[in-house]
Structure formats: C-alpha cells, structure tokens
User: What shape does this take?
Amino acid sequence: MTVSRALRPARHAVGLVGAIYVAVGILSGPGSAQDAAAPPPPTVTVSTPLALEIVEWQEFTGQFRAVDVVEIRARVAGYLTMVHFQDGDVVAKDQLLYTIDRRPFEIALDIARAQVAQAVAAFDLSKTQLARTENLQRENVAARATLDERAAQADQAAGALQAAQASLAEAELNLSFTEIRSPIAGRISANAVTEGNLVTEGTSLMSNVVSETPIYFEFDMSEANYLAYVRAYRDGRMPSRRDDRVEVQARLFDEETFDRMGQLYFVDNQVDRSTGTIRVRARFDNADGLLTPGQFGILRMPASEPYTAILIPDQAVVSDQATKLVLTIGPDDTVVPKIVRPGPRELGLRIIRSGLDASDRIIIEGMARARPGAKVAPVAGEIVAGDGRR
Assistant: This one.
C-alpha cells in the first residue's frame, strides 16, 4: 500500500512528458502530417495564341431589292380581251402579256390612212397649180398676187399633209399599245384585271414585273463605320468604297456560311439626318435564283487589309470589372495575368489587339483553378480556327 501510493506520481509525470514529446515530434518532425496534406498544383490546359493572316469582316443586316421593277399599266383605254400569262411566270423581254380590243383602234387607223391620202392629193394639186401660176407670171399673164396665193395654198397643203401623217403615226402607235408586252425580263406578279374588264389609260395597275438577276442588296451603315472606312481609304489602308468594286459576301438567315459573292456597287451621297446612317448597295448575280426581292439577309464586307492577327478562344478572356485579362504561364509555371485589348471575333476566335505575344503560353481551360502568382501544372492544348479549341 505504501509503495504503490509512492509510485503513482512518478508514473504520472513520465506519462505526461512522453505525451508532450510525442506531440512536439508530430508538429516539428520532417515528415509532419501538415506537409503530407498539402494539395498539388491544379492542372490547366495551356497553348500559345494562334497567329493567322486574316481579313477582318464587318456584318450588316439588309434587304434584297430588284434591279428593275416595272408596273404594267395600259397605255390606251379599252376592254381587255386576253391574258397571255399565268400568275408568277418568268417572262422574257417583249413577251406578250395582255391584249386589248383592237377593233376601235383599227378603225381609227383606217380613218387616218384615208386622211393622209386626201392630204397627199390636196398637196399634189397645190403644187401643180403653183407651177402653172409661176409659168404664167413669167409671161406676165398672171398677177403677182395670184402667184403668192398659190404659194400659200401649197404651204397649207404641205402642213395638212404633215398633220395627217402625224395622225396616222398616232393611230398606228395606239394600235400597237393594244398589245401590252413586258419591257424587261423577270418574274411577273399576279394578274389584277380579268378578261372583259375595261382598263383605263395609265391608271389601271394590271401587274408588275421584277428582274431576278442580278439583284441588289441594300443596307444602312452607321456614320461611325462610314467615317472609319473613309479614313482608312484616305490613309491608303483600304480601297475606295465608291470607285473600286470591293468584293463582299452575303448569306440568307438559314445559311451558315457566306458563300454568295458580290460587289459593293453604290454608296449614297449624304447621311440621313434622322437616323445618322448612309445607304449602301451591293450587287449579286443570283445565279441559282434563290434570292428574291424583299428578302432579308446578312452581308459582310472587309474591314481591314490582310494582316497577321493574334487569336484566342473567348473563354480564355477573363473580365475584372472593365479590364480584360488573359492568364499566362511563366517559365516557372506561375500564373501571370496580362491586360489585353480584345477585338472582334473571326474564325470562331477572338482577335487580341494588344497585350499578348505569339510566344505567350495562355490558359485556355481551367481558369477557375488558377490564381495569379500561384503555380499550376500545365497540360499542352491547341487553339484551332473554326471551333475555338481542340
């Protein structure tokens, strides 16, 4: 009993010292648990920017318009006797479209021809009488006053003949107007007047014809874009939009690529004061006939001369309030952010105006795991045009 009680404090002291020693060894030893739990650097995908020679394009939404549009109206009044086309037909130039009752105009033509014959006879008689009077006057048989009267009658007969001939030409023209022909080649609209109806001269709209090829594409360009193009032309960086035939491309809304090639054709001479835009027109061949006047489409035109651009995926650009950053990797695999100035998208990638070199290694995947100044474990990737990254 006495010995046992005496040994208890000693055993307690030894146990306490041992526990402290073990704890100190755990906290300060070279193989500590804290070092064993430290995470490895995060894995990120890196690549150098894509350097390609490109031409920047600017897109505009506009509308296709026919080069020629003609409203078909009667040039003489009469009853419509025949329609020679089906609604929506493609018609050739000078193709017969309508026939108006010809009989009244044929009668008018016969009357005009008879009046010409009468005028010719009267003119021939006046010339004969004038010649006879001239001979008599030379022999001092006829008075001078009689000669002057015969000369005036001959002039009157000549004038009457000219008037009769003009009436004949008018009658022939009116008769030809009874056949209404297409003045252009193109596609005709629906017929608005059926057979048997009276059409009036110049007022009855019977149909219309629009040309299909070539076709215009019209769009409005902002004043800022217009000034940029003008300054680029004056600096020699771009060809003139007014004088040179600049190549442009277009597509319809259900088309993915700009496969339709055309030329810039016209720039208006003033900016619209109400909208601050200027009207621009391009021309396309429309060889497949798919482009229809009134359709909307998208046109793109070159906004720069060919140059070597730095291209990266959009997801590689990080926003810090108003500042745009790209996370690059230093030689020691440390994250180094760089401030960049992005440009427009081309080939599915973002143009970088400034802030990056073609030799920089940038993070294209895993930006959320990267911290400026921290190390990362880079994995090689590749930036390709078209889909952004592969």
